[in-house]
Design brief:
By secondary structure, the protein is an alpha/beta fold. Helix content is 40%, strand content 23%. It is built from eleven helices and eleven strands. The relative contact order is 0.08.
C-alpha cells in the first residue's frame, strides 16, 4: 500500500450524524491547504458500518482509528462505555475488509485497570493487525463521573512515573509485533486548556511523549551496561543528533539516574552516520577492584 502523508481530522464520535459530512468536507479543505493527501479520523466502534466506511472513503479518509480505550469488558462496563469487545472485533474486521488502515486509541490508568489488563488488551488487539496506535493516560476531567469518584477518594490516578512506565510497557509489546506508527499523545495542560478542558488530577506533563521515549532509551542503555562483566565507570554513547536529548533525558534526568543508581558517567555524542533510533556504545573506563 502506498504511504500517504495524512492529516488527523479529529474525532467523529461526538458530532451529530447529520453534521458528519459537513465536518469531513471542511477537513478536506484543511487537508488541501496543508498539501496532504489523505485523512485520518477516530470514532467509537459502534459507529462503524459498511455504509459509514463507504462514506468515509468518499471524503479521502484512509485511516480509521477506533476509540477503544481498553479491550476489557469489565472495565469498559465500569467506565460506562457504549461498546464491548465484540463491537471492537466487528468494527476492526469491517475496517480491514474495506482496505482502510485500522488504528486504535488506548489509555492506561482506568479504574480497576492493572498493567496486566492493559498488556492483555494490546495483545488481543494485535490480532487485527492495526497500522496505527495512539496511547495516553487517563486524566481526571472536571464535571465527569471520574471526577466525582476522585473527590470521594474512590479513584486514584496514576502518578507521572507510573503513567510513563505503563505506556512504555505497551510500546515494548507493540514493537515486538512490529507496529511502527505508535504515538504517545501529548497531554500537557496548556493544550487541554485550549480545548476548555479542566484537569483536576492525573499525570499531565508538558513533554509527556518525551518522558516515555527517554525512559525507553534509558532501559536500552542499562541493559547493555548490565551485560558487561566488569563494573562500568564511564561510557560513550553515539546516536543520531535527533536522539541526543532522549539519551540525556528531560532536564538531564537520564544522566543523573545513571550516575546516582549505577555510578556511571555517560558521554553522549551526536553522529549523523548512525540511523535514528540506533546507538553505538563503548565502555571507556571501569572501576578497578
Amino acid at each position: 500500500m502506498k504511504n500517504y502523508t495524512q492529516y488527523y481530522a479529529g474525532s467523529l464520535t461526538n458530532i451529530e450524524e447529520n453534521e458528519i459530512e459537513g465536518f469531513l468536507k471542511e477537513a478536506n479543505k484543511k487537508m488541501k491547504s496543508k498539501r496532504l493527501e489523505k485523512l485520518h479520523i477516530s470514532v467509537e466502534p459502534t459507529m462503524i458500518s459498511k455504509e459509514f466506511l463507504s462514506m468515509l472513503k468518499q471524503y479521502n479518509v484512509i485511516t480509521v482509528e477506533l476509540e477503544v480505550k481498553i479491550a476489557n469488558n469489565f472495565i469498559l462496563k465500569k467506565y460506562n462505555a457504549k461498546f464491548t469487545i465484540e463491537d471492537i472485533k466487528k468494527a476492526s474486521k469491517l475496517i480491514k475488509r474495506s482496505r482502510m488502515n485500522l488504528g486504535y486509541e488506548l489509555m492506561v490508568g482506568f479504574p480497576d485497570s492493572t498493567k496486566i489488563d492493559e498488556m492483555e488488551s494490546v495483545k488481543y488487539l494485535m490480532k487485527f493487525r492495526p497500522k496505527v496506535i495512539r496511547i495516553y493516560p487517563v486524566l481526571v476531567i472536571d464535571g465527569t463521573d471520574l471526577a466525582v469518584a476522585y473527590k470521594n477518594k474512590e479513584y486514584e490516578p496514576l502518578t507521572l512515573t507510573q503513567a510513563v512506565e505503563r505506556c512504555k510497557e505497551l510500546i515494548y509489546i507493540l514493537n515486538k509485533k512490529k507496529i511502527k506508527a505508535i504515538t504517545v499523545v501529548d497531554i500537557n495542560e496548556e493544550n487541554l486548556n485550549k480545548e476548555q478542558v479542566k484537569v483536576i488530577a492525573g499525570p499531565t506533563h508538558k513533554d509527556f511523549p518525551q518522558l516515555v521515549e527517554d525512559s525507553i532509551w534509558y532501559d536500552s542503555i542499562v541493559s547493555r551496561i548490565k551485560k558487561y562483566n566488569s563494573k562500568v565507570k564511564e561510557v560513550k554513547v553515539e546516536v543520531h543528533p535527533n536522539n541526543v536529548n532522549n539519551v540525556i533525558g528531560y532536564e538531564k534526568e537520564n544522566l543523573e539516574k545513571f550516575k546516582e543508581l549505577y555510578s556511571v558517567e555517560l558521554q553522549v555524542i551526536p553522529n549523523e552516520d548512525i540511523k535514528p533510533g540506533r546507538l553505538e556504545m563503548k565502555i571507556l573506563t571501569i572501576y578497578e577492584d
